[in-house]
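Is it possible to get an amino acid sequence alongside its tokenized fold?
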Amino acid sequence: MATGIPAEKAAGAEVTDAPQPRSVRVVLLALMIAMLLAMLDNMIVNTAMPTIVGELGGLEHLSWVVTAYTLATAASTPIWGKLGDMYGRKGAFLTSIAIFLLGSALSGMAQDMSQLIGFRAIQGLGAGGLMVGVMAIIGDLIPPRERGKYQGMMAGVMALAMIGGPLVGGAITDHLGWRWTFYINIPLGAVALAMVTAVLHLPKKRARGRIDYLGTILLTVGITSIVLVTTWGGSQYAWGSAIIMELIALGVVSVVGFLFVETKAAEPILPLHIFRNRNFTLMSGIGFLTGFVMFGAMLFLPLYQQSVQGASATNSGLLLLPMLLSMMAVSLIAGRVTTSSGKYKIFPILGGALVVVGLFLLSTMDVTTTRFMSGVYMAVLGAGMGFLMQITMLVAQNSVEMKDMGVASSSTTLFRTLGSSFGVSIMGAIFTNRVGDEMVRRLGAGAGKLGSAQLDHASLLKLPAAVREAYQYAVSSGTHGTFLVGSIIAVAMFVAAFFVKEVPLRGAAPAPEGERDGAPVAPPVTESVS
């Protein structure tokens, strides 16, 4: 029995508040499993990294295990989005799951660090299509007006990955071995693969144009250069070093060339016309800034709590619980209100304000701050993130025609990914410099090297009391600097939100022709699921 949005409604009227059939919910369950795969992988693998290095060796190449995955994911994200638009969402999504599972299986069988790095790149290629596929398929199946109902589900998956990833990774590594941190993806992915294959039915598409190969190459080179600059700059290489300067030059030339090629291509990999829409451009910028401050915060909060507040590294995921629970609850409330009222502009404004306040409060933490107060500060930041995380994707998808749903989803995801790379790099450089300077100020020039190390609570207890106290003050100084800079940058997010135009969401009452900020009102979804 075919279910879904009746075909007779495709001709004109918008769909209004129709309950989603059970089969759509089954598809959503499969999509959430795939989303969990994409978000959980790095969390689990990071916990197992010391064990992996102990068995495979190659400590000098350790960073590439993460970098290869990140590069492949970022570079492939816009490509997956375009392939879904051109050849059909379902086929592209199933292919990305299959590649991710192949990379997971091969990574689990790696015999040396070089193999693991290569297999992680394969895994990353598949991962690039997982999140994009999830968001684009949801965009196809559920009108934006109804999509708010499911924001809590997506925020819950994110919270589960952030909290459970380190715990699951540690348990698997200790009891089953590090290879199972990769093998665990296979049964979960197989379930998602089977469910999507059996239940999701979307119209087949035939591309009229050729793939934009030159644009794809230029975009891949540009993204790779940007990610490498933010990954290597200030750590492996000095910011003024020749290789960083060369990567910056290569990135700039590639991006400029890409923009030129996209104006000429018949089927551009990233159609530039979608950026003429004010809401889409604003959501891309807000998404970039959201990734910048969020991942920076998630990197340094556990370090502060372990080094200064004496928390256990084993429970690093639980340290973020106040932020993640707040984010999940607020996302659920915002989604429900959006669905019932059709209004959403207030949420990015509130989100931007709370992020600024939350980061500023976190910048006030010092060696005397209690866990309760830091938890309150994290909850404020999480509430801001809850207003922003799903709304940015919702508004971006509502701002384009249905034929561009894939590239809209992939572009928004890509900007958030690039924002996280910049955030980790810039905030990391600020943190490292402040910690080193504070150690030198308190203990003399010889303490600068110690300041560059990240010491957990157990390691700190082995240090002399004076050194331990100096390091704790230094970490407090470092987190103060990073969160203060983050709060200043987040002001731009708050200001940008005021320029969002509240355009009726598809699925709400019919809107006048051409009202959607320059993007024609697309017909509602006609896909069905069986």
